[in-house]
C-alpha cells in the first residue's frame, strides 16, 4: 500500500499541538518587543520554548525510525544523507522532507509557538513554508556543520525574506556541538557558500579583513525543546559532538509570503519547478500562518 504523503495535508494531523481559535489564545505565543529588538540587532534569538517533554519524545521516536533507509516513507525525502560529513571519522545525519512522512514532524510546522514567532520576526507578515531539515550528531563522533549563511544555499528564491528556526531535541552544549552565531553578521551581505559539512572554518576564505576582525562567535546552549530563530544571512555553525550524549535537532525554514522563484529548475528534489518570477506557493510551499483573525 502506498505510503501517505503528508505534504498534501496543510493542517494538524495529530494531537501533539493545538491550533488557537481566538485572538486571545494567540496572545500567549507572542514574542516581546525586547526579544524582537534582540533579533533585529544580533540576527538571532535564542531560548524560545518550542516543545514540551511529550512533544520532544514523540519527535525523537519518529527520527529514530526515519534514520532507517528502509523506512516505507523514505522516498518522500528531498534529500537523505546517513552521513554527510566529509571527515570519515565523524558522522552528520542530515535529511530534508521529514514533514511529508511522520505526523509529529509534519505538525511542527503548525505549532502555534513557531508560526507566531516566525510572523513577528519577519515583520508581522503571512508566513510560507520553504523546507525542513533534520540534523543529528551521534555521541563521541558527531560531525561539524561549517560556518555558513542559510540564504547562500537558497539564492534560487528572491528576495531575501527568509527565516530559520532550529529546534533542539536534546540539551545542546558546547561539548556536543551546540549552535554558534556571529552577532550582527546578518548585515554583512551575501557571502559565498562553503561545503556545509566540510571544513568548519572554510568561511574565513570568503571574509574581508573587517569581517575577520568582527568574527567573534557566541555559543548558544539550549535545553531540549528550546528553539533558536535566525536571519537567513546570519553566520552560524556548530562543532563536533565529543560528548557521550546525542545532539538531535530539526530545522524549519520559512519565508514571507510573496517570495518568488528565481530558477526554472527544481527548487527541491522531486518537487515540480516553480517558473522563474512566479510566486512561491502550491502544495509543497504551504501558507502556514496568515495572521490572527
UniProtKB/TrEMBL annotation:
Its cofactor is Fe(2+). Transmembrane segments: none annotated. It comes from the Bacteria. GO terms for molecular function: 2-oxoglutarate-dependent dioxygenase activity; iron ion binding. Keywords: Dioxygenase, Oxidoreductase. This is Phytanoyl-CoA dioxygenase family protein. Pfam families: PhyH. The keyword Oxidoreductase applies.
Amino acid at each position: 500500500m502506498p505510503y501517505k504523503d503528508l505534504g498534501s495535508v496543510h493542517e494538524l494531523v495529530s494531537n501533539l499541538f493545538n491550533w488557537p481559535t481566538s485572538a486571545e489564545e494567540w496572545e500567549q505565543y507572542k514574542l516581546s518587543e525586547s526579544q524582537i529588538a534582540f533579533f533585529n540587532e544580533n540576527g538571532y534569538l535564542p531560548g524560545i520554548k518550542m516543545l514540551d517533554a511529550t512533544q520532544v519524545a514523540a519527535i525523537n521516536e519518529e527520527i529514530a525510525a526515519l534514520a532507517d533507509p528502509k523506512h516505507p516513507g523514505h522516498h518522500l525525502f528531498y534529500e537523505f544523507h546517513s552521513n554527510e560529513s566529509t571527515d570519515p571519522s565523524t558522522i552528520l545525519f542530515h535529511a530534508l522532507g521529514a514533514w511529508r512522512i511522520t505526523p509529529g514532524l509534519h505538525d511542527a510546522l503548525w505549532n502555534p509557538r513557531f508560526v507566531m514567532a516566525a510572523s513577528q520576526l519577519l515583520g508581522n507578515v503571512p508566513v510560507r513554508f520553504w523546507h525542513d531539515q533534520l540534523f543529528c550528531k551521534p555521541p563521541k563522533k558527531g560531525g561539524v556543520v561549517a560556518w555558513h549563511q542559510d540564504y547562500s544555499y537558497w539564492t534560487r528564491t528572491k528576495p531575501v525574506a527568509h527565516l530559520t528556526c532550529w529546534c533542539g531535541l536534546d540539551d545542546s552544549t558546547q561539548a556536543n556541538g551546540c549552535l554558534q552565531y556571529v552577532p550582527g553578521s546578518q548585515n554583512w551581505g551575501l557571502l559565498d557558500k562553503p561545503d556545509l559539512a566540510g571544513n568548519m572554518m572554510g568561511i574565513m576564505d570568503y571574509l574581508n579583513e573587517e569581517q575577520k576582525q568582527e568574527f567573534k562567535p557566541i555559543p548558544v546552549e539550549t535545553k531540549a525543546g528550546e528553539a533558536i530563530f535566525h536571519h537567513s544571512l546570519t553566520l552560524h555553525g556548530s562543532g563536533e559532538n565529543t560528548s557521550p550524549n546525542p545532539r538531535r535537532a530539526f530545522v524549519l525554514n520559512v519565508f514571507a509570503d510573496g517570495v518568488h522563484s528565481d530558477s526554472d529548475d527544481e527548487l527541491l528534489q522531486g518537487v515540480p519547478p516553480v517558473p522563474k518570477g512566479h510566486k512561491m506557493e502550491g502544495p509543497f510551499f504551504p501558507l502556514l500562518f496568515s495572521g490572527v483573525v
